[in-house]
Write the C-alpha cells for this entry.
Amino acid sequence: MENNRTRRKFLTGSAFGLGSAWIALHWPAILAAQQHAHDVLSSGQRAQFQFFSAEQAAEIEAVTAQIIPTDSTPGAREAHAVYFIDRALITFDRDKQSLYEQGLRDLPSKTIELFPSAHKFSELRAEEQIRVLTAIEQSEFFEQVRVHTVMGFLSNPEYGGNHDQVGWKAIDFEQSHVQTPPFGYYDAEYAKSKS
Amino acid sequence: MNQSGTNGRELAVRFDTKTPVDFVVVGAGGAGAIVAKELSTAGFEVVLLEQGPYLHETSFQHDELKFKDLYDPPFIGQDTLTNIHSLQPNTFRKSETEKAALAPAITYGRCVGGGTVHFTANYWRFHEIDFIECSRWGSIAGTGFADWPITYSDLEPYYTKAEWELGVSGLAGASPFDPPRSKPYPLPPLPIKSSGVLFERGARKLGLHPFPAPMAILSQSYNGRSNCQHCGFCEWFGCEWGAKSSTLAAVIPLAEKTGRCEIRANSYVTKIATDKRGRVTGVSYFDLHKRGQFQRAKAVVLCANGAETPRLLLLSESNLFPQGLANASGLVGKYLMIDQSAPAQGTFAHPLNEYKSVQVTRVAHDFYDSDPKRGFFGGGGLDGRFDWYPMGYALNGMPPGASRWGAGFKASLRENFNRTMMVLAHTTTLPVASNTVSLDPDVKDAWGQPAIRVTFKGHPDDIKNLAFFRDRELELLDAAGARQKWAFPISDATAGVHLLGTCRMGNDPKESVVDKFHRAHDVPNLFIVDGSSFVTSGRNQPTCTIQALAYRAADNIGSMAKSGSIETSF
C-alpha cells in the first residue's frame, strides 16, 4: 500500500508542466528505478538488529536521541537512526565496528564514573545523559555516532533511518523529481515585482 | 546498474582488439566523448575506452549517500560516479622534500560522460585575456605563466559549436564583460532562484553587473532531450531527465548512432604501446574482470583528464621514452593547476529553499581581469549558489557557532537549511613547475599500478587573490541583506576537482608537451586533449573550454587523418 501511494504521488506530482514526447518515452524506465527503490525500502522493514544486541542498540539509540533530540518535532529516535547505524556497520561502514565495540565498553564506564549509582547510560535522565556525552564529545567514538546519527536522520529511508522521512520533514526538505518555480520567498517576490 | 557497457543498445558496433582501428580514444568524459563522436561522424572507426561504467538516466537516483562524493571529511560518499579512492588511492604532499601521505587529493568523473555527468554545469567561455595574459601582464617570477599558442578567435567557432550541440542556457550580451560571440545561446536562461535574486540585489547595490548564469542544462526541451525539471539533485548527481548537457546525454548517443564508435566501458588503460620508431601501436587495459587486453590502433587520442593523462604517459615509459611517453620536455605532469576556493555563506530572514533546481542562476564577472592596483596577479568570477544536500549541510555547511549536537544543533539545522546561500569565487591558479602529478614510488592501486602522487602548494598570489575574493563575497552577502554571514578559512588546497595544465600546449617542444593542434611533440600519432592542455587556468571554470578545445582538436585530427599526414605504425 505504501508503495502504491508513493508511486501515485510521484506520478501526479511529476505531471506538472511536462509535455515532451521524450518524457512519455522514458516513463517506464524512470518508474522501474523508483519501484526498485521502494522495494528495497519495504524489504528493509525489520525488527531485528544485525550488528548490535538489543541491549547495545538501546544504549546507542539513547545517544542518538541526545544528538538529535525529540521535541515538538521527531528526532533521531523516531527516524530510527539506530537502525541506520546497525545496517551501516554490516555494510559500507564495516571498518567502524571496532570503534563501536570499544565505545560500547567505554560508555558505561564513563556513566558510572559520573553517576556512581547508575547502571546504564540509557537509564539516566536527559540532563545526566547530556553531561556524559559532553564529557566524551571530543572522542572518536562520539564523533562517529554524531556523523552516523545525522546520516540516519537525513539519508534516504532505504538505508534504514529517516523513517517516514521525519528527518527531511524536520528541515522542510521535500524529495521530488519535479519542482516548479517559484522555489523560495525571494524569487516569488521577484516574479511578482516583474509581472 | 547496467555495467555491461551496451546500455541496452543491442546494435552497438564491436571492434576486434587485434585489428587496428583508426583511433582509440582514452577517456569518455567531457573531451573524449566529443573527440570520439566527431571522428566517428567524420567516417573513422573509433574505440572509446572508459575506466568507469556505462550508466543510464535510470541509474541516477536522488541518493546523497550513494552519489554525492563528499570530498570534505568525513568522506561518507560512495564514489559512484567518481574515481574510487578506496581502490585508486592518491598521495599528497606540499613540496618535493616531503614524503607524500595517503589522501583523496583528486576527484574526477569515472563513468561514460566523465565529470560532465555530475558537474555543476557552469559553462563560462574564457575571455580574450585568458589566452594572452602573460604578454598583457608580464611574466611572473617562479611560475611558467605564458600565453597560449592559440587565441580566443581561434576557439570562438568551437565554443559556439559546443554550446549549440550540447545545449547551453544563457543570455548573450547580458554581461558587459563577455567576449564577442558569433551566435547567441541556443536556449534562454533557467528560472532565477532566491540565491540568484539575492546575489543580483547585493551585486547591483555594489555597482556590479550580475547576469544570468550560462549553464549546460536545458531550460527548454532540445534535440529530443527533456528540459530541466528543477529536482535539485544536480551538482554531484547524474541527471535522471537527461536535461544536464553531459556528454553522456548529448554526445554519446550521436557517436553510437554512427555505427563506427564502440563505447567500451570498464576498461582501465595502463599503458600506451609504441613500436621501434616511436609510433603508437595501441593501448593495454584491464577489462571489468581485470583481464589484460590490448587494443591496436593507428592513432591514440588521450582524454583521461589532467591527472590520469600525465600518469598514463609516465606509466608508458620505454627504452625509447625513458622519461615517459611524449616527455622529452620533462613537462609531463608539471604545472598542475587545481581549483582553490574560499566560499562565504549567509543566512536570510525568509526561506530560499535552495535545495530545489540547479546550483547557480546568477554570476558576476566584474573582477574577472587582474588589476595591478590590487598588488598581485589574479582574477575571477563570482556566483550565487547552494552546494549542499541535507547530510552535507548538517555536517559541514552550518553557521559557525552552531552547536554540533543536541537541541541547539537541531534548532539551527531546522532554521537555517532553507535560509542559507553561498557566494563562491572561481579564481586563477598560477602554473608553478613544482606543482605536479607524478607516480607514487610506494603506493599502488587495486590493479597494481603506481598511484597518483600530487605535489601542490598555491602560489602566494593565488592565496592573496582568494582573500580578495573572500572579501568581495562577504560584501555582497552584506549588501544582499544577510542576517548572518561567514567565510570558510583560506587554506592551501590539498585536493582538486579541476585538474589542469599537466601536458601544456605550446609551439616550442622544449616548453610544452603538445602543439597547438594537440599532437604530442614527440609522437606523431598521439594526441592529447583535456584539461592537461591548458597553459593557464582561466578562472577555474574549465569545462566549456575543454570541450571547445575537443571540438577544435577533433576537427584538425580528422583533417590530418584524411590527408594522410598522421604517420602510423600500421
Residues 460-479 of chain B form the longest helix (20 residues). Confidence is low (pLDDT under 50) at residues 1-8 of chain B.
